[in-house]
## 1
Amino acid sequence: MPKMKTKSAAKKRFRFTASGKAKHGVVGKRHGMSKRGNRFLRQATGMAIVSEPDTRILKRNFFPYER
């Protein structure tokens, strides 16, 4: 049986921590910064943790070897 492929789009958008949680970049900072408040822009830096049910879906469907 051939190897299963990891989804390339998911590879670019998600990373996994050492404990197995999924991280993603904070949404809403690609364009339209003038509409956003300064508080939002400050808080929307770095990475955010994906919820536990969504992490299970990611591992099952998009990262077949990330168990």
## 2
Amino acid sequence: MAETLFSKIINREIPADIIHEDDLSLAFRDINPQAPVHFLVIPKKPIATINDMEESDRELVGHLYLVAAKLAKEMGFAEEGYRAVMNCNPYGGQTVYHIHLHVLAGKPFGWPPYQDKQKTA
């Protein structure tokens, strides 16, 4: 796989606001946030797209979601809720060909429109 922006971040060739690192993954704040909280969780192993995952990547990909949940709890938005999503290829919105989990929080997402239970009670 060709070198990507994310492999350069992993190798510390370019800076990033890293919020988590372990043997398998790295998490850092998105430089173009789409929500008040927006960070990426990436595997250190280069995998271009979801379509390129293999059976042997099952635990690695699960680990990315566990890291997202751990960080959501640590950052205080787990109970309120968040979105965790991977994009795949151009029509899916993927721009960096190294799989990555977007974690977005700090505002309501989805349909029907979110209603704050405290405001309606």
## 3
Amino acid sequence: MRTVRSRFQPDRQLTARMLVTLFLLGLLYVAFIAVLIVLLKSWILVVVIAAGLLGAQYWFSDRIALYAMHGRLASPAEQPHLHGIIDRLCTTADMPKPRVAVSEMDLPNAFATGRNADHTVVCVTTGLLRRLETQELEGVLAHELSHVAHRDVAVITIASFLGVIAGLIVRFALYAQLFGGRGRRDQNTVVLFIAVMAVSAVVYAISFVLIRALSRYRELAADRAAAMLTGRPSALASALTKVSGDIVRIPTRDLRTAQAFNAFFFTPVRGSGAVLSNLLSTHPSLERRLDQLAQISARLGKPG
């Protein structure tokens, strides 16, 4: 998979992991569609629905994410400080400037989404802008821009599609069973319902684990790339510590709204006291990220 030409350090391990994940999910997707065609006996319906949803997610992922997070595009006149930082980073990285958006949420976070470098948006919340100093914000934005340069934003968007399809099919099957007729003549329907639910659950579970494994590594890769581009890993570490500490103070309602986009965020959204195993988390632990940044600081000969 080709990365966008920029001065962000290429990460061959990230590229290899993205290729392997897409390959495995592709095989899983083909098998899933084949099983659904056999069970539902209507390949046209399955293919049309699958293609339609994939196209919508690929072409409109940026608009969907902005709408869900109450974000809007911001002009340089509206956000001169934010645009100034992104302009400097894009010039340093020698990469196209993405669109810039702001979300009116107190939740301190940022994310990048879009199908390619020419159709990407970087969004930050007003909560993040209020909390971070300029160098800390620069580190966070460099982290998000590295996702664009490495093209893992598009890969995560496509990879998450299979889990979305599986979840939707479970819901459709459930609604059909709940509102369908009952009786002996529906015994075959019950068997079909159970089979579709079982297959969809297995597919969702496998795709869930694969996507999260890739997501954890891509966050470490983005931290490394941002630290090397800015030359200030300590500023990024400071932003990580500050944002992670403040998220637990955000109202639960706002956290629930944002949790669906965890894989895209700078730091994961978790409620107070939530404990997620490494296998299920979209991000590596804060300790691991800070330890990596400390090692980079040592190599650069700067204080951690």
